[in-house]
Each structure stands twice: as structure tokens, then as C-alpha cells.
Design brief:
The protein has a 3-stranded antiparallel beta sheet with strand order 1-3-2. With about 260 residues, it is mostly helical.
Length: about 260
């Protein structure tokens, strides 16, 4: 049977000799063997007990509680509890990563952020549920959750939307109308992105757009100003009208080539 000294356990498990001796002193973990010289030896079973203690400590349990439950729970039950704890920590870490990515994208959108702006957005994220989900059926929601850009994401689609929003803000700051060449270019890119996002489902796109126009406190979505929303609507209407007229223009051009005298009609 293998056995380990206090020093060996200290080095292997990165636990101080002082801590191991304290566990022995309070009866939490006593070495199973002692030789005639008083040297303590830990058995394999002792090592499993030490692992249980370490895992239970990671759950922020005091040593008194650990001592009471140490022999009442199996190693498997301790592992399950530790697994659940790690899942909670993972969710918390993922949330922190998402919030950090959101702030990065917000800076990309707005150029800079005041502390008041950051504070209000963080409070909103913590207190406002994503109520936009309530407006959609389960099948629609399942599709949207996979396809919609997310502020906390850095994928290609999200970055394209962020870039277009910044361009719209620039147009507004420079008094450039939605019915301009810049507005037309932005609108055509938005239409293309919308088709990609909603899979060509125009009804779903229109439905989401109506939710998008709701106040942020009602939808839980990233707040976009009315001026930006209005620019989007006007520029897309302008682009759609231009695109409708294109076939007629091409048709008239072709007819003129076939019958030049039409110009004098």
C-alpha cells in the first residue's frame, strides 16, 4: 500500500505543511499512519478526503461545516456540487465577457462613453429583461436567437451593423439626407444584411422592425435614437423606390435603342 508524507502531499497538492498540520490538529484530516518516530503518513483514502475538503472549500464553506458533512456525502456528490458551482462561475464569467464586448462595441458605435452612459447601460442590462422575445412565437424566437446580431458578439454580421450605424450617425451629424447617394448606399447594405439576418422572410423582418422601434425600456434592446430609426426608414423607402424604377428605366432605354424616333414622340 502506498503512503505519502506530509511534505510529499504539500508539494503534490500545493498545500502548505502548516495547513495540513492544522487539519490534523482540528481532526478534519488525520494521517492514517504514524511510524515509531512519529512521522505521519497519508493513505490513498486520505488523499480522497483531502480532495473532498478542497472541493468543499471552493464552495466557500467554512471548515466547521465541512467537518460536519465530510463523512455524510460521497465523493461523487461533492464532485456534482463542485460541477454546479463551476457552471455558475462559467455563466458569471461569460456574462462579464459579454458585457465587456458590449462596451467595446458601444465605444465603436458612439466614439466614446461617459461613465453615466456606461452606468445606465449596465443597470439596464441587469434590470430590463429582453422583452422583445415576448412579441414572437416559439419558432420565430428560435430562429431570431440564432440569427440576430448581438452587441456582445464580435462576429462579422454584428460588426457590419455597427459600422452602418456609425455611418448613419455620421450622416446625421453632417446633415446628409437619407435620400442621398450615401443614404442609398447605406440602405442597400441594410437590405442585404436584413435578407441575410432574416433568411429572406420579409414578414419576420417587418415584425422585428416594429419591435425595434419600441422604447429600449420596453424592448430591452440596445437603445437607438429616433433620428437614426427615421433615417433608416426613409433611406430604405428611397432605395426601394429607386429599385422599382430601375426595370422601367432599363425598358425605356432598350426601346429607345430599338426605335430612336421615340424621343420625339
Amino acid at each position: 500500500m502506498r503512503r505519502w508524507t506530509t511534505g510529499q502531499i504539500s508539494r503534490q497538492r500545493n498545500i502548505s505543511v502548516r495547513t495540513l498540520r492544522y487539519y490534523d490538529q482540528i481532526g478534519l484530516l488525520c494521517p492514517s499512519e504514524k511510524d515509531e518516530h512519529g512521522r505521519r503518513y497519508y493513505s490513498e483514502e486520505d488523499l480522497f478526503t483531502l480532495e473532498k475538503i478542497t472541493l468543499l472549500k471552493s464552495l466557500a464553506l467554512p471548515l466547521e461545516e465541512i467537518a460536519q458533512m465530510l463523512n455524510k456525502v460521497s465523493y461523487r456528490e461533492v464532485l456534482i456540487a463542485h460541477h454546479n458551482y463551476l457552471q455558475e462561475q462559467l455563466i458569471s464569467l461569460q456574462t462579464s465577457i459579454a458585457n465587456t464586448a458590449s462596451l467595446i462595441n458601444m465605444i465603436d458605435l458612439e466614439g466614446s462613453l461617459s461613465w453615466e452612459r456606461v452606468s445606465s447601460l449596465v443597470k439596464q442590462a441587469q434590470s430590463v429583461p429582453k422583452r422583445w422575445k415576448d412579441y414572437f412565437h416559439e419558432d420565430e424566437l428560435a430562429f431570431l436567437q440564432k440569427s440576430l446580431p448581438a452587441l456582445e458578439s464580435s462576429d462579422r454580421l454584428t460588426q457590419q451593423y455597427v459600422s452602418l450605424l456609425r455611418r448613419i450617425e455620421w450622416c446625421l451629424d453632417n446633415s446628409i439626407a437619407p435620400q442621398s447617394s450615401q443614404g442609398l448606399e447605406i440602405a442597400n447594405q441594410l437590405i442585404q444584411l436584413s435578407n441575410e439576418t432574416f433568411g429572406g422572410n420579409q414578414d419576420l423582418a417587418d415584425k422585428f422592425w416594429e419591435v425595434r422601434k419600441l422604447p429600449a425600456e420596453e424592448s430591452g434592446l440596445y437603445p437607438i435614437t429616433e433620428e437614426v430609426l427615421s433615417f433608416v426608414e426613409q433611406s430604405i423607402a428611397y432605395a426601394e423606390q429607386r429599385n422599382k424604377n430601375l426595370p422601367n428605366i432599363h425598358a425605356r432605354t432598350n426601346n429607345k435603342k430599338k426605335n430612336p424616333s421615340i424621343e420625339n414622340f
